[in-house]
Amino acid sequence: MTRARSIVVMIVTVAAVVATACSSNDVGGSETGGDGGTASSTGASGDPSTDKLAQIQARGTLVGYFEPEFPPQSFAVEGATRPADTKCAEDQLTAAEVDGYDIQTTALVAESLGVEACFVTPTWTEVTGGNWGDRFDIVYGSGSINSDRMERLWMTQPYYAVPVSYFVHEDSPYQTPTDLDGLKIGTCASCSQELYLRGELEIPGVEIEPTVQDPEIVTYQIETPGLRALADGKIDAFLAADPVGQGQIDEGLPLRRLDPPAFTYYPSGFVDKSSGLSVAAFVERVNEIILQAESDGTLQALSEEWFGTDYVSAAAAFDLEAIGQGEIQ
What we know:
By secondary structure, the protein is α+β, with helices and mostly antiparallel strands. Helices cover about 30% and strands about 20% of the residues. The protein contains ten helices and 16 strands. It has helices at about 5-20, 50-60, 100-115, 125-130, 190-195, 225-230, 240-250, 280-295, 300-305, 315, and strands spanning about 30, 40, 60-65, 70, 75, 95, 100, 115-120, 155, 160-170, 185-190, 215-220, 235-240, 255, 265, 270. The protein is globular and about 60 Å long. The two termini are about 40 Å apart. Residues about 1-45 have low confidence and may be disordered.
């Protein structure tokens, strides 16, 4: 068991003891509004046929997102054994089979809700496009809050804040981002980095300034293949989240990062606006869980474990209400 997984298990165990000692009126908060109904890790109010939180707790699983080639945020556990008593469907992965910062964040939310975390593998384009058809419940995929996604997805409290930088081959002549004007730059498709390169990125409350002029943009479904293409000399640079680029350097790719970072983004747990169920209570409860994990140091400890630094404190200070999502349905 990794230290990160041990931290989550320890906190969930303590939470379970506290919940047992408290009355039902002391657990959780109002999730349904006017009639004072509550939803917590020990039970849910609401109709599972119309309410997302009630559906998750009645089903006993929270279905999240898994990307197999995205270390240290998300990766498969080699030689893992699928638990015989899992509630996850046959076409879903269990928490025993996957790991990483995004995976552990999903597991933290699931365990706080008193359910099992399960994982599916839609493409990132499917995730950011919305209209999930309730095939999965929430996506922790290191995807940032931005104005474009807010048209299709509800944003929840950011769970870390990530610098994004240009990476180049270690032998390249480029020393600063301004050296990359007009060059072939790779990035992930349908992500904030692509919007940034196109001059279209808007993160409410965050000032965004372009650093490279007229790039020739080459997109990849995820970042790691693009970073490998950079190492192979197929592109001139790649715009990536710092922990992803550094992770590939640590694995031996001959790359280096250019300073300063291009911008900082705020990854959020995404919830589909097109769900056939009311998601208001679910989103509220998720926000409570993440804010608590930021307040008590749980997420900071996970960030230190997976990234070797604290990417969480800046996210904890982010004002989610200021982005103007409106009333969540």
